[in-house]
Amino acid sequence: MAHEFKSGDLAVIVGANSLTQNIGKQCELRQYVVSGDLFLAPNGKTYRHDDVPCWTLYGEGLAAVIDGEVVNFDFAIHEPRHLMPLRGVPEQPKIKEIEHV
After folding, report:
1. What is the rounded distance in angstroms from the CA atom of residue 85 to the CA atom of residue 36?
2. Nearest CA to 26 among 14, 42, 38, 39?
3. What are phi and psi of 65, to 5 degrees?
4. 92 and 17 in contact (C-beta within 8 Å)?
5. Which residues have a Cβ under 8 Å from the Cβ of 59 and sit 6 or more positions away?
6. How far is Cα of residue 101 from the mean position of the Cα atoms in its chain?
7. Rounded to whole angstroms, how far apart are CA atoms 28 and 12?
8. Count of other CB atoms within 10 angstroms of residue 83
9. Helix runs in 9-52, H state only
10. What integer pLDDT is reported at residue 89 of this predicted model?
11. pLDDT at residue 92, rounded to an integer
C-alpha cells in the first residue's frame, strides 16, 4: 500500500530489511532521501545516502547503522513501505465508565 508521506508526519515502523528492533516503534519523518542525497545524522556528521529511497526518522529508542556500526541515536532510516502513517487514524472511542448503583 502506497502512502503519501510528508516531513513531520508520525508513523509506526512495521517492517525492516535489517534493524528489526525498530519494528513497532513510533517515529517522526524528517527527510526523504534518494541515492546521492545528503543527510545530517544526530552525531553531527553529513552522510550521502547510497540505497533505495528512504525516510530519515527520529523517535525514542530508534537504532541506525552509522559508520558501519549499530548506534542508538533515536534516529533511523527506513523505506516508506516499512512505515504505517498515524495521521488520519481515528481516535479510539473511550469506554464509558460503569456507574455503580
Report:
1. 26
2. 14
3. -95, 115
4. no
5. 25, 26, 27, 28, 74, 76
6. 47
7. 9
8. 22
9. none
10. 53
11. 47
Looking up cell 448503583, which residue turns up? 101
Cell of 73: 541515536
User: How far apart are the C-alpha atoms of 12 and 101, rounded to whole Å?
Assistant: 42
Angle at 64 between CA 63 and CA 67, to 5 degrees: 140
Q: Is the pTM of this model over 0.85?
A: no
Half-sphere exposure of 50 (CA within 13 A, CB side): 5
Q: Is the pLDDT of residue 45 over 70?
A: yes
What is d(CA 33, CA 79) in angstroms, rounded to the nearest whole number?
Answer: 10
Question: Whose CA is closest to 25, among 63, 80, 65, 71?
Answer: 63
Nearest to 87 by CA among 10, 29, 12: 10
Domain boundaries defined on the chain: 10-85
Rounded mean pLDDT of 14-42? 96
